Amino acid sequence: MPRADLTALAVRLEEFLGCPHDDSSAMPFRRVLELDERESYPYEFVNPLRAWGVPEYALPGEHGGRAGDVEAEFNLVRLIARRDSTTATALIITNLAFMTVWTGGSPGQQAEFVTAIKNGQRLSWGLSERGYGSDLLANAMRARPVDGGYLLSGEKWLIGNATRADAMVVFARTGERGGSGDFSVLVLDKRAVPAGSVTELPKERLHGIRGMDLSGVRVDDVFVPRSALIGREGQGLEIALKAAQAARAQISGMAISAVDTGLRVTLDFTEGRVILGRTVSDIPYSRRQLTEVFADLMVADAVSLGAVRGLQQAPEQASVHSSVAKYLVPTMMERAMSQLAVVLGARYFLRDHPHYGVFQKMLRDLPVANFADGNTVVNLRNLAGQLQPLLTRLASATGRDRAAAEANAAVLYGMGAGLPTYEPWRQELFARGRDDTLLAAPASVAALGALAEDAKEEDQRGWLRRAAATAEELLARTVSLGERAERLRTELGRAFGNSAELFDLAKEYCLLHAVAACVHTFVHSHEVMEEPLPNGALLLLQLERLRRALAPHESVTDPGVVDEVMRVLRHFHGADQLFSHWQFPLARRELDTDTVRR
Length: 598
Description:
By secondary structure, the chain is of the alpha+beta class. Helices cover 55% and strands 10% of the residues. It has a 4-stranded mixed sheet. A 4-stranded antiparallel sheet has the order 2-3-7-6, covered by helices on one side. Strand 9 (274-275) and strand 10 form a beta hairpin. Helix 4 (70-81) runs antiparallel to helix 5 (85-104), helix 7 runs parallel beside helix 9 (318-344) and helix 9 crosses helix 12. The radius of gyration is 24 Å and the shape is globular.
């Protein structure tokens, strides 16, 4: 979707929803908090958003949906989640379940489900089980073949919308050979089975997203027809893992939304609160905290940009891009919210405050992004298993490899570039050593250096030079990363694959991928950004935030950089723009000054 069209779509949704601080808007914070306190499912928000058409942007256009580019739905859900993570989660579960059908189903099944979803059908995705967690190959639910179909027996637990959904897509055992080919994906239509044959488990009470229906089902020899099989028998694990790649990018975006709201309400406080003759925003320590959180948001935004666009542009690399985003983004955003809590002070702890009460809800809701559809360990394990071929390719890449990667990176991180049609079945479970984000990084660092020399303002020229030097320094670590991985492999032998040290190397790989993502976004999207972006000071602070993970007490910025980033941040806040490279206009804020100052 062209940038102008995507912006217009975002504006239309924002106008529909209105300012969340306005009690008369379609989705006000006051009502969001009331439902959360009651642990009530947010029907009054979900249903109007379904009627507006949000879910249709995740349904294939050839079957009547509106999906063109994945980033359309990603950004729509992000705008919803900045108001309420519970509503956003409830809204996308049907689409996440449908991803299994889009990935592995026949055209007839896809068309049938698109029609049903547009007519109001809700799906849930029955993947996890109580006793096995992330160990999918241990799952016990069985689908025993019989004439005309299967008899389904077992339990699914901690399933979003399990009670409220009309049908559940289930991951079930259809073979007993003892391998990945033992599993299949079937659809359990709860409306088509005898009454009482599906036992719905109680809703679990939650720390965050309290109104969410997170429950499960238990079945015992319930018949499902063979037509309910998605893809081929034995293809279940492949379908589930490919569907998870899209889910991971989507869920990471909700973590970004939580911090967007957290930073916005914190700025409402710091811009108006005067201590010792100056606003809290102008106290050096607080200013540093605010700008660091903003920089972290923009790092997460750049990583997500590549991961989401990569589902279309480089689907064979989705296993790497989605895992990097799913590990790094929620982890960074949890740290960012903790920083904001320090700045906001006592008000972050107040559940009923009419303006700041939403902060504590976002703080509680955010961690769901860390464990839903693959937790931190799952994503690091996925990267750890591919680390050796990724590092080997980086060390031995030919000029042809790098040229292809550079062409891909220009689309992955170029917000003005068009994308090919989304075909989720083209996603791969292993990237075969390809991560074009890092392969193309040297060229983008060189391009950044050229942009520095072309910069008209002396300050920008200096900041960009320092950013290019910092990025080059960090990306050089890919060499030592490869050497350390090889040394560990030799030292640990067979224990290497499950070692804590390998997981630490995978974490560092994620940081270097993020460095490259930040540089690529600046280089390939700078022409379509609007004042005050692109900005060399902001990029430099983004890179420093990543570098701090490796050198926690060393700085590459100075007070002048922080002051400039604060200027950019104030612009975004004052102009009611999303804290993102997309710079979407948001609904104009309607603030009660007295309430804000309380």
